[in-house]
What does this fold into?
Amino acid sequence: MNKKFRIRKNDTVQVLAGKDKGKRGAVVRILPAKDAVIVSGVNIVKKAMKKRSQQDQGGIAEVEAPLNISNVAIVCKKCGRPVKIGYKIDGDKKVRVCRKCGEIL
It folds into this structure.
């Protein structure tokens, strides 16, 4: 269950497939059990919410649904394009690098 993903929380990613293809957003959450990520402002679905308390409002809410991790690619800050991730040993640390320009992600 302890999976390591190339994409991490707060990375800027671009959607590669689906109804929101081409949209960009930051990773809000990673769901390792489902191999999925939740991206802010992407894959918005309507969900019926039950009224939980007197102050709470029920009704239909718009929430971000998970996307499969294979359908998103990290965006390099230098290139500005979705790229594959490589790894490099920097001193005693292993760092993620852009495969196109070599910039540390």
Remarks:
- The mean pLDDT is 88.
- Residues 47 and 61 are 5 Å apart (CA to CA).
